[in-house]
Specification:
Strands 3-2-1-4-5-6-7 form a seven-stranded parallel beta sheet, sandwiched between helices. The longest helix has 15 residues. It is globular, with a radius of gyration of 16 Å. The protein has six helices and seven strands, in the order ααβαβαββαββαβ. α6 links the parallel β6 and β7. α2 packs across α3 and α3 runs parallel beside α4. The chain is an alpha/beta fold and about 210 residues long.
Length: about 210
């Protein structure tokens, strides 16, 4: 689906705050957070044709980055070598858990630098910033977004394109994706603002979050 301000899915899209509240409720009462993160990563894995691909996964400090680390481990389980590029030294608790699992499976990890070369990548997975971001990305993240946009790789953004606001779809600098895989529920920002020009194709995956 190509997102547009007139897409019928917009009627079912929710706010970032409602998504956070629903996520927190589900974790507190039904499904552990690590399981939700694994389901998110598996949903991304199942949404993409990885045949012949050598993925580069750019990961930020939050749970969006954690989805990328969990994805790297799943790719390794399926014999698909990937490389992690980290744009932060920090981890969320669940992100650290899946990062260590990915390393134990032989996944390579490096820090992103402004001279990092993405020109040889044939698929890039964007797990840098989540739906609550607004404003202009800080320097190293801005450099990563620009490198992604300059590459000729197929780009997959996880949950939302890094740099785009999940409520408004606005962005001063954001990743341009070929595919964006929304997690849990569509957010309003997937359809309005700059979303139609930044998102190539949009899909949503259900990971069991109960909407409240």
């Amino acid at each position: 689906m190509k997102p547009t301000p007139h897409s019928p899915e917009l009627a079912q899209a929710i706010s970032v705050q409602r998504m956070r509240d629903s996520d927190a409720y589900t974790i507190a009462h039904l499904i552990p957070s690590k399981e939700l993160m694994y389901r998110a990563a598996m949903g991304v894995f199942e949404s993409v044709d990885w045949q012949g691909k050598t993925p580069v996964i750019l990961c930020g400090s939050g749970n969006n980055g954690g989805d990328g680390y969990a994805l790297a481990g799943i790719l390794a389980d399926h014999g698909i070598p990937s490389k992690i590029l980290r744009v932060s030294e920090r981890f969320s608790e669940d992100g650290a858990y899946y990062y260590n699992i990915a390393l134990s499976k032989g996944v390579k990890s490096e820090y992103f630098a402004e001279n990092s070369n993405l020109s040889d990548a044939n698929i890039i997975v964007d797990c840098i910033l989540g739906t609550g971001f607004y404003g202009f990305p800080r320097e190293i993240i801005a450099a990563a977004i620009q490198k992604i946009n300059e590459s000729k790789a197929y780009v997959v953004s996880v949950d939302i394109n890094s740099g785009m606001n999940g409520d408004t779809g606005e962005a001063e600098l954001a990743v341009r994706s070929d595919l964006t895989v929304s997690i849990g529920y569509y957010k309003t920002g997937h359809f309005i603002g700059k979303a139609p020009e930044l998102i190539g194709e949009l899909v949503n995956i259900d990971i069991g979050i109960v909407l409240i």
